[in-house]
Write a structure and sequence with these properties.
Length: 80
């Protein structure tokens, strides 16, 4: 899935951040570093907050397009 598909399906994210892999911390995000070539790799995080859940997509750039490398859905009431 690419960024355009995510935006078409979910609309504009509540948060859109661009960071290097080594700057991404936290329990949900730590596994991302294993999916990239090195800590300098740029990762785009798209965060959505819905009534019943939160959804986070992480993307890297391949062939000039942002592609999803991982995502997570967090049900309402779950602390992370």
């Amino acid at each position: 899935m690419d960024e355009k598909e995510v935006l078409r399906k979910f609309g504009a994210p509540n948060l859109n951040e661009l960071k290097q892999a080594n700057a991404i911390v936290g329990e949900l995000r730590s596994a991302l570093q294993a999916k990239v070539a090195n800590g300098e790799t740029e990762i785009k995080e798209l965060y959505y907050k819905f009534d019943a859940q939160e959804r986070i997509f992480w993307l890297t750039q391949r062939d000039g397009e942002w592609r999803v490398i991982s995502d997570v859905s967090i049900p309402r009431g779950v602390a992370y």
